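Worked example

This section walks through a single chain of length 183. The input is the sequence exactly as stored; nothing has been trimmed or padded.
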Amino acid sequence: MGMMDEVQAGKDLYATFDTTQGTIVVRLFSKDAPKTVSSFVGLATGELEFTDPSTGQKTKRPYYDGIIFHRVIPGFMIQGGDPTGSGRGGPGFNVPDEYQSGRTFDKVGLLATANIGRPNTNGSQFFITTSKPTYLNNKHTIFGEVVTGYDVVEKIAGVARDASDRPRQDVRINKLTISTTQP
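Given that input, the structure is written out below as tokens.
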């Protein structure tokens, strides 16, 4: 039984981001956003096929390992999940929006999908909030929340960055692991 099966069974899962700045653990909302969590988990574990943007070939491997946080804005969020590091890359497919849970951006440390500003354009990119951006309600699917390591999120948000909000020194996800119990 793979981790995507665990999502389909409605089990709570945890994503552990081992980054160059420290560890962040997020509880995923499998019941609230099953399609989003299933895609995220499948990409993280290598269970879900995606199109490699550098080769154009379909492949299966842990997608997020080695990817950078390409956009950080103090007092707002940190963003990652683009294998090209440009903010424009993705897995070659879209995941539909999931707002039915009624979750809102009412606290810091929420994990949500990044999109291109149009409905149902979620792919692999995500962000973790360091504010309460309620104007994003029903525009980005909320699919998890930080349970440990929020200080690491703040640390990443505060790194030196250029005029495009890209960190001057790469902040990398060394490894992203999924588990059924909180680490």
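What to look for: The chain has a mean pLDDT of 97.
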